[in-house]
Every structure is written in structure tokens, then in C-alpha cells.
Write a structure and sequence with these properties.
Elements: E1 2-5, E2 8-11, H1 18-25, E3 32-36, E4 39-40, E5 56-61
Parallel strand pairs: 1-5
Antiparallel strand pairs: 1-2, 3-4, 3-5
């Protein structure tokens, strides 16, 4: 299946979860928020939320600065 992850079209196996996308990206386990098709996915749901074919995943990382 194909899904857009942070603006980049990617080939992903069917049934890929949000947690698997984060692992693929090497994203940290904290300080991250994820939205699938514009809906924020609670952290507890990441392991069981599948990315839909043609879907959009945005991974946002908190940044500190001043």
C-alpha cells in the first residue's frame, strides 16, 4: 500500500500501524505526536491504529528553543 508520511509517499506493508511507522522513521518514543488523515492518534492507540491505504501520516516532534 502507499501512504504519505510527513509529505513523502512511501510503500508500506498492508496493516502497517502508527507504531511501525514511527519505528521505520526512528522517531523517539517521547515528545512526539501523530496524526492520521488529520486526526490526532492518542499514544495508547499507536500499536493498534492501522495506516489506511492512501492515507496521510504526520509525525510531529516537540522542539524547545528560545
Amino acid at each position: 500500500m502507499k501512504a504519505r508520511v510527513n509529505g513523502e509517499l512511501r510503500d508500506l506493508p498492508d496493516g502497517t500501524t502508527v507504531a511501525a511507522v514511527l519505528a521505520l522513521l526512528g522517531a523517539p518514543s517521547s515528545g512526539v505526536a501523530v496524526a492520521v488523515d488529520g486526526e490526532v492518534v492518542p499514544r495508547a492507540e499507536w500499536p493498534r491504529t492501522a495506516v489506511p491505504d492512501g492515507g496521510t501520516v504526520e509525525v510531529l516532534t516537540a522542539v524547545q528553543g528560545g
